[in-house]
């Protein structure tokens, strides 16, 4: 018999909108062979029965059942995390940044490492490792920067397809103000960009893997390169990613290099790089006028709070962006950020918002600026998906979306999360309505603050199991 449907049964938690947690205890989700969620049945006892009720032509042997139960246990499904900004090529430098800030960090640490990935064996080792690590941390979708090299960027796309992560692959474009050993001429950059876009679209042909046009940041891109990329983005409806307004010295450099532009965002807008499918990393020092422009163009923002603290770049005013209706997701920004975990980034996003709140004198404003556990878990999942224009595909558990999920286990033999007896919840509705909800929310907070990859027991992308912890679990 051929397998036609997989049913997952257990407690499902997701964040359908900012600040909102949805808890669906003892629920069955049915997933087709293409990874699509076909039905969701709440308060279900018998997942196989649900499958046979859903499609009466199915034989029991055509259905696989993944049942995670025992209603008292500390396990729940959560949507896979979305890492909206990660430099795969910089992974070996995670944690190594000394006391540098952006511009000297690029010269001292980053460009030499990225250049070294021209060697295929080095690139293969780095890309294999970073993919294993991000999957182990529950990241099911990531938007990657590779290097300027086309061959190793294509290698990254291939490894990604093999390992099963959903990803955007961005060959880095830079043709000015860069070291002699790590730069392309405009002509070379056009050629290598085309090579990567064509390879992914025409040869690899895995719909989970897409190319993303990646001008590194304004200082390292000529006007003609940015114009060409802007035109290509429109002609072929491609995603775009770049850095914006990360560090004050960078802002000064941009003002010097592009005196014709009123502000940093204008540089990209002049070259038609701000589109609905553009993702801008950092956005720490934006003016109100720039926020207006990003809103008008429908761009997404990648908030990278671990990187911004590590490189002393500043504090992104996330609440202000959200209040303006801008889609915001989270980014590890390896290796400006030291952690490959979006859970750790979400934790830092919450803490940075509290630092910003401390600067407010008005109590009401303070409260507003704070991001809650629910807020940052939204940014880590559906928020990130929306920022990458994948909001209708992944990020929450809905019929017709893809089953990209992680199984969280808060009670493993060995992890950092201690749950006491009285903190457990049956998850189910109880006569004491509301009590279980409160306990469940406390468990989410415990996961956010004390959890790590040991709590990520299994990870699926489009219904394919791509990671288990411990490794022997099935
Ligand atoms: N700006 C230009 N390049 C980079 C990079 O690699 N990382 C970060 N964080 N900012 C950048
Ligand atoms: Fe970055």
From TrEMBL:
Q: Which family does it belong to?
A: Belongs to the metallo-dependent hydrolases superfamily. ATZ/TRZ family.
Query: Mind listing the UniProt keywords for this protein, alphabetically?
Result: Hydrolase, Metal-binding, Zinc
Specify whether Acyltransferase is a keyword of the entry.
no
EC number(s) given by UniProt: 3.5.4.3
Listed pathway(s)? Purine metabolism; guanine degradation; xanthine from guanine: step 1/1
Which organism does this record belong to?
Lachancea thermotolerans (strain ATCC 56472 / CBS 6340 / NRRL Y-8284) (Yeast)
Cofactor binding: number and manner: Binds 1 zinc ion per subunit.
Indicate what this protein is called per its UniProt record: Guanine deaminase
Q: Which reaction does it catalyse?
A: guanine + H2O + H(+) = xanthine + NH4(+)
